Amino acid sequence: MDISERSNAVLFLGSGGLALFFQIMHYLGISEAQVYALLFVFFFSGFAGFIKTISFRENLRAFVCFDITSKALSLFVPFVVAFGAKSIPTLYIFVDYCFSFLILGEILSVLICIQRLKTRNKDIKEVDIYNLMVKKFQDFLAKHLKIKEVEEQGEKDKKSNIKGE
């Protein structure tokens, strides 16, 4: 197989992959603008992270293995939620929220990366907006649903059932 046959095969498979991707987006009802914005922000964040990795002489292999892979995997989170929304239509609002949080998180990551480069300070911690929001939501639910009190009551009930037997 010569180089022109290989390049034709790559172009054919790439076109098929893009067609499949756009068909899945259409089937799930995901806006193309959201996907384009997320891809653009992921690309820019990856580029800024690459520049940061090179300028601070960090391990490039670790950057590729962990940072780029995590960005690629987090791209599929809204698609997974959209597949769930096909069976439960009220989940469609969470698809928009997933895209919004991913875009905001990556913009924050780019800003922190630029600040690190500007100040030449590697010790600036990145704020993981996703885990921060989940923690705040858990604290909110625990506070308003009084989960700890319910758990304590459940433990007391178990102890009283054991003593009663």
TrEMBL record:
Indicate what this protein is called per its UniProt record.
Holin
Can you tell me where the transmembrane regions are?
Answer: 9-28, 34-51, 63-85, 91-114
Keyword entries, A-Z: Membrane, Transmembrane, Transmembrane helix
* UniProt superkingdom: Bacteria
Give the originating organism.
Helicobacter apodemus
